[in-house]
UniProtKB/TrEMBL annotation, chain A:
Coiled coil: none annotated. Residues 1-20 are annotated as: Disordered. InterPro entries: Acyl-CoA_DH_CS, Acyl-CoA_Oxase/DH_mid-dom, Acyl-CoA_Oxase/DH_mid-dom_sf, AcylCo_DH-like_C, AcylCo_DH/oxidase_C, AcylCoA_DH/ox_N, AcylCoA_DH/ox_N_sf, AcylCoA_DH/oxidase_NM_dom_sf. Residues 1-17 have a biased composition (Low complexity). The lineage of its organism: Bacteria, Bacillati, Actinomycetota, Actinomycetes, Streptosporangiales. It comes from Nonomuraea dietziae. Its cofactor is FAD. Pfam families: Acyl-CoA_dh_1 (PF00441), Acyl-CoA_dh_M (PF02770), Acyl-CoA_dh_N (PF02771). Residues 20-123 form the Acyl-CoA dehydrogenase/oxidase N-terminal domain. Residues 236-377 form the Acyl-CoA dehydrogenase/oxidase C-terminal domain. Belongs to the acyl-CoA dehydrogenase family. Signal peptide: none annotated. This is Alkylation response protein AidB-like acyl-CoA dehydrogenase.
TrEMBL record, chain B:
This is Carrier domain-containing protein. Signal peptide: none annotated. Gene3D superfamilies: ACP-like (1.10.1200.10). It comes from the Bacteria. Residues 1-78 form the Carrier domain. InterPro entries: ACP-like_sf, PP-bd_ACP.
Amino acid sequence: MTLTGTVPATAAGTGPVTDRRSARAFVDTHVVPYADAYDRSGRVPEELLRRVAEAGLWAPFLPPDSGGAGMDMVTLGEIHEEVGRGCSSLRSLLTVHTMVSWTVQRWGTPEQRERWTAALGRGDTLGAFCLSEPGAGSDAAGITTTATPTGAGWVINGVKKWTTGGQRADVFLVFARTPTSIGAFLVPKDTPGVEVLPIDDMLGTRASMLAEISFTDVALGPDALLGPSGFTAGMVLTGTLDLGRYSVAAGSLGILQACLEASASYAARREVGGRPLAELPLIQAKLSDMVTDARAARLLVAQAGRLKDAGESATIMATWVAKYFASTAAARHASEAVQIHGANGCAPGSPVARFYRDAKVMEIIEGSNEVQRITIAGQAERETTR
Amino acid sequence: MSTTAKGQILDFIRGRYPQAEIDESQDIFALGFVNSLFAMELVMFVEKTFEVTIPNEELRIDNFRTADAMSGLVSRLAPDLAVA
């Protein structure tokens, strides 16, 4: 592939992605060989976005009559892991699109679902999630973007930052402060008053086409509000972030798996003092810890997925735990993967250098790990007082 | 373990907040420990346990203030269920 992001045509990895195996074939064919070029160019090319649509990857959990395949959450997690193994930027685009699509399906009125879900399911319309602001990241309660009710609908004013896929998305799921609570609004990108400012040269997920989105007197109809108003509006955000956290947990596991595969391969080939690196006990210790943590993270992600499929409320805490474990493990082992690769791991175009940068981002997004610890510890405290 | 809707709802809340002494008519929001995470868990619990889908128009704070109110919500959504 060239720096412009052209993906060569190939028969391998084609067809719908329905499970881990087909996802792996798709990623190995269409993503892994080119991910470093995406990282350098700061974009996932349109051609790959189209291939993702052709593979039915954008929102396969939607019902078949809404452009999806009715896929269960366990399988979705496995697929996001595989995509994350290949390219965290592409997985990030999937994550935010997943959040928007699920939210419309879960909370939308029949009319809203009719308008949006089929196009979201096919990937004809791409969604992005707008919560963070210049002054409010993990502190969602601190957002200052406003949605003011008018006789004809709503007017939105404010600035959203770090919007993954913001440069490319067609519709934004915007969280804004209403007179009574925080509401979720669907805002088409071409609405007058919406302005997109690309954010380039981030530390990690550099090809995820981040943007700052400003909303200046953006007039919307009454059907822009998604889900209930009032106190339960907070549940829209909670549910949306829960799914995002699940995807990020799976994607973090993907990074960890990629670090393991790259490190094991390198350690088998690279010799030091006439012996392969893989024979050195300190390298073996690093590899064994990668294997162990990858397996543990996979179990945690699968558990969260099974609870989602069962509709169990325990999935929310299970997802917090999975994301916390997988993201910290990914960051730790990505650092070790660079260490194993030595200077080669620090070189331009080194996959493990990309994993290292991407893994750090995973510890921050969808609730920083500090917020995760507060939440998990709070649960532990409650349980121990029983 | 309770078998009525009201009892099951109270068991769930007490299980999550064992330090709080809650009865069926107490306003759990007034007690100050309900956040959006717990609200989401509560809705998921009700939907899963009683096999109902709570429509947006029923997602009002008054339907979730007390175990009595939640039990009433369940009885409206699943009239055949014993909710005594």
